[in-house]
Amino acid sequence: AQTVTQSQPEMSVQEAETVTLSCTYDTSESDYYLFWYKQPPSRQMILVIRQEAYKQQNATENRFSVNFQKAAKSFSLKISDSQLGDAAMYFCAYRSLSQGGSEKLVFGKGTKLTVNP
Amino acid sequence: GAVVSQHPSRVICKSGTSVKIECRSLDFQATTMFWYRQFPKQSLMLMATSNEGSKATYEQGVEKDKFLINHASLTLSTLTVTSAHPEDSSFYICSASGTARGYTFGSGTRLTVV
């Protein structure tokens, strides 16, 4: 079974600075998606960024970018120019794309990000 | 964009009663719905996966008779917590797949059983 590990329970960053959240995963599959979700205090899950495993190019969405290292099974999230609104729980998630595989997301335990003014 | 409406957002019920939580996909057809439970300061725990018109697939350790899931149409799925007890108090979230973006989450339901 696939597992997702987020080794940083909590992180903090100064406003306008850059922070990187770590995520590693374990899988024997070659086709999959990886996601970063944000859960602010409202508890609404918001998609931050998605990466297809077959793509070598790292995904970016404005201030958010990933460092996807397939061989190392690492998928870190970089937040540039951090804003107060970025404060939230961040979850890394994995989804199999193997034929016959489940659509379900496998989540890490999350990283709580605090942004200091 | 894709929206999943989840109701109620908060519910308090008496021990022994049943509570129904609804999730509706407003502008797309949700081929698969996922139901999660989230304890404070923890990650989302998948309870079950349901496909329209078929029985839900429950994760190991989740009581099928306590957490009844119905996915009768491509736009509606319900989770009924039967004979609720205080230990069922939690935050429940639904998520639907069926769009190009992948998954759309409801806003969650905070259940308190007194």
Structure overview:
The complex is a heterodimer of chains A (117) and B (114). Chain A has strands at 3-5, 10-14, 19-21, 24-26, 32-39, 46-52, 60-61, 64-69, 74-79, 88-96, 105-107, 111-116. Chain A is mainly beta and 117 residues long. In chain A, strand 5 (32-39) and strand 6 (46-52) form a beta hairpin. Chain A has no helices and 12 strands. Chain B has 114 residues and is mainly beta. Chain B is 0% helix and 56% strand. In chain B, the strands form 2 sheets. In chain B, strands 2, 4, 5, 6, 9, 10 and 11 form a 7-stranded mixed sheet that branches. Chain B has a 4-stranded antiparallel sheet with strand order 1-3-8-7, with no helix packed on it. The radius of gyration of chain B is 13 Å and the shape is globular. At the A-B interface, strand 6 of A face strand 4, strand 5, strand 9 and strand 10 of B.
Give a topology summary.
The complex is a heterodimer of chains A (117) and B (114).
Chain A: E1 3-5, E2 10-14, E3 19-21, E4 24-26, E5 32-39, E6 46-52, E7 60-61, E8 64-69, E9 74-79, E10 88-96, E11 105-107, E12 111-116
Parallel strand pairs in A: 2-12
Antiparallel strand pairs in A: 1-4, 3-9, 5-6, 5-10, 7-8, 8-9, 10-11, 10-12
Chain B: E1 4-7, E2 10-13, E3 19-25, E4 32-38, E5 44-51, E6 57-58, E7 67-73, E8 76-81, E9 90-99, E10 102-105, E11 109-113
Parallel strand pairs in B: 2-11
Antiparallel strand pairs in B: 1-3, 3-8, 4-5, 4-9, 5-6, 7-8, 9-10, 9-11
